[in-house]
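Quick review question:
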């Protein structure tokens, strides 16, 4: 599953009468084989959290999978920033090794 969240950052700290406590959560099990949760960061970056079933995958496998996903994302961003968005960019981002 891939989930991309693109919502503006909420600034709750400035609301009068509101107390905020930050709590870290840890899911002990993945609902699916693996899930990708993406959201934009303040500096125009992209943050990705990967949740996976540890009885199916180990950390090395997920690391390798995530590195394979970075190549098409990087290429797509490079093609998007060029004035000539030719079919060469499309072919380049779809080449799989």
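Suggested answer, residue by residue:
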């Amino acid at each position: 599953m891939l989930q991309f969240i693109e919502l503006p950052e909420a600034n709750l700290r400035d609301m009068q009468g509101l107390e905020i406590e930050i709590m870290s959560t840890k899911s002990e099990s993945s609902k699916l084989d693996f899930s990708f949760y993406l959201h934009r960061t303040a500096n125009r970056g992209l943050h990705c959290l990967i949740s996976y079933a540890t009885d199916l995958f180990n950390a090395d496998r997920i690391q390798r999978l995530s590195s394979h996903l970075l190549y098409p994302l990087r290429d797509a961003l490079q093609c998007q920033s060029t004035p000539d968005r030719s079919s060469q960019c499309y072919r380049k981002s779809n080449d799989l090794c």
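Why it works: The helical segments are 59-81, 87-94. Residues 1-57 form one domain.
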